[in-house]
Design a protein that fits this description.
mainly alpha
Length: 274
């Protein structure tokens, strides 16, 4: 007879969750890279942000050329993925790529909120500045694209500030952050190229509401006399950036971190001992 209060052979016992080496390795990579990004000096930070705007601008050029020739947003979206391939291979940075990686480092106490806001702000401004310049070059060099520029940009200019446009922005943030997560799951550059192409094509082909990509299209239209102004663009920028943050931080980053609570606790304990 089993003594009272003791568990019998058939009684369930709680076991700690089995570690997942691949997930934990990815977490370690995210923390280390996130810390590097948060600690990056100002000049290199501006540099990678400017290069990110140029890379995305190259994708916008491909998008406009293909849409002009084919009339297909799906094929144009596939062409746009060239910009994300450039981002990956050139190791430049896009504002929305800085949700998962530095936030993971912040949660692990490898950085501060002030440094995170600095990273976001400088990267976004640099992306937009370089994008403004590259789109000016595009419309000056290729005047035949002007009608396509105006049509493409008007789609985003007309989105406004409602539930639909916010959901499009949330999806865009989630798509980019999921792409980042998949790329950090491997050390193989060849494998990393796959999500760059697929998610870049999804973002542009589905016409999701992305603060940097759509700003560049709106800039191009403004360069050729769009029926809206910079005040309208700025309002759309703020609205789409808010949705991008919600999608990237809530739908992907926060859920992702739920898989490694023990590692977060270990990092925090190590920080406390330090």
């Amino acid at each position: 007879m089993t003594p009272t209060g003791s568990a019998g052979p058939s009684s369930p016992t709680e076991r700690p969750a089995e570690p997942e080496p691949e997930v934990e390795d990815a977490f370690d990579r995210l923390v280390e890279e996130g810390e590097d990004r948060l600690e990056r000096p100002l000049l290199p930070l501006v540099s990678v942000g400017l290069l990110g705007g140029i890379d995305v601008g190259t994708g916008v050029l491909a998008y406009l050329v293909v849409e002009h020739q084919t009339g297909s947003t799906l094929l144009a979206g596939l062409a746009f993925s060239l910009g994300f391939v450039a981002l990956l291979l050139a190791r430049s940075e896009l504002f929305t790529e800085n949700f998962l990686v530095p936030v993971t480092a912040l949660v692990a106490r490898r950085g501060s909120v002030a440094k995170l806001l600095r990273l976001w702000g400088v990267t976004l401004v640099a992306n937009l500045l370089a994008g403004w310049v590259i789109t000016w070059l595009i419309v000056q060099a290729l005047p035949d694209l002007h009608p396509t520029v105006l049509t493409s940009a008007q789609h985003y200019a007309d989105l406004g500030y409602d539930l639909r446009s916010f959901c499009l922005a949330v999806l865009a943030g989630a798509v980019i952050t999921l792409m980042t997560r998949m790329q950090h799951a491997t050390d193989s550059m060849g494998v990393k190229l796959v999500p760059a192409v697929l998610f870049g094509a999804l973002l542009a082909g589905a016409q999701l509401f992305h603060c940097v990509l759509d700003s560049l299209l709106l800039f191009a239209a403004l360069h050729v006399g769009a029926p809206f102004g910079y005040a309208h663009w700025f309002g759309l920028l703020c609205w789409s950036a808010l949705g991008n943050l919600a999608g990237g931080l809530v739908l992907v980053t926060a859920v992702r971190l739920l898989r490694v609570p023990h590692r977060i606790a270990e990092e925090r304990q190590a920080d406390g001992r330090g």
